[in-house]
Amino acid sequence: MTKPILELQDVKTIVNKGTSNETMILKGINLKINAGDFITIVGTNGAGKSTLFNVIGGNLRADEGKILHDGKDITRTTEEQRTAFLARVFQDPKLGTAPRMTVAENMLLATKRGEHRYLIPRKLKPNMDRFTTLAATMNNGLENRMTTATGALSGGQRQALSFLMATLKRPDVLLLDEHTAALDPHTSFNLLHATNERITKDHLTALMITHHLEDALTYGNRLIVLKDGQIKADFRGAEKQQLTVKKLYQYFED
Hints:
Layout: E1 6-15, E2 23-33, E3 38-42, H1 49-57, E4 64-69, E5 72-73, H2 79-82, E6 86-89, H3 103-110, H4 128-136, H5 155-167, E7 173-177, H6 185-201, E8 206-209, H7 213-218, E9 222-227, E10 230-236, H8 237-241, H9 245-249
Parallel strand pairs: 3-8, 3-9, 6-7, 7-8
Antiparallel strand pairs: 1-2, 1-4, 4-5, 9-10
């Protein structure tokens, strides 16, 4: 049997420990993620979606359980250590990029993700053609703004850059944390289409949180419903293809 690229074993997470507001957010998450999976994740506010990503990403420790990467226990590794194999795109377009650096400079910086960085020549010119070609796959004119400071980009272009930076080194696991939620519908649609194309073409393993049930049904080969800190459903294959918004909405009703 193929070993999962990432596995969560009975993961539990508690916030506000030792206070009257102590709360268990994740209540025994068991999840096997196989190489090439594109998993969409839906759930109500407070279901534990962002907490799940924070625990996988390493900026929040699991209080119980284990997290395995390619069979190796990474439960106690840091967020920085996990950047060697994991990348994340956040909801806010301002996160994930350096605003005073140009588009090309940001992309060059992304080539060093998970590595020790040294004071060496930038080697920007030899990479410019490759970076420009990659930017063109976003279909939003980003390739024409390679020498523009990132802070001067539109929200859609900046988020597209964040996505390119996250995928430039083909991470083992890509976390998309509502990465189109802050964009207008047209820009969101274009970025989702580009996202799907890149994940499919490069056979990336990705998890995507979304509040749009239609997007959860449209994209990916698996769909997970998270409710009250637990996985209530894990649809895949033909079962996911036959799923409807109406049936999925039932999980949001009390």
